[in-house]
Amino acid sequence: xxxxxxxxxxxxxxxxxxxxxxxxxxxxxxxxxxxxxxxxxxxxxxxxxxxxxxxxxxxxxxxxxxxxxxxxxxxxxxxxxxxxxxxxxxxxxxxxxxx
Length: 99
Hints:
By secondary structure, the chain is mainly alpha-helical.
């Protein structure tokens, strides 16, 4: 978290991935989604990602959705659905969210 805040202070942006120190419960929730066969559940994907961004104190979020072979979203339709879910879950956030 110290490096996260330092990067934000020095250059005004943070590029980060999931880590145990940033989102301690995320790995456990993902493991639970794995055993309950809900890994590909869009509302759970969206809420997992958005909650980390908002909890980290983001003033704005850029979301990059990769599509196709090797990507989490296999079709453009699935990626659009994820973007809509992000927009919906981020709607109550004070900075707002738009697809």
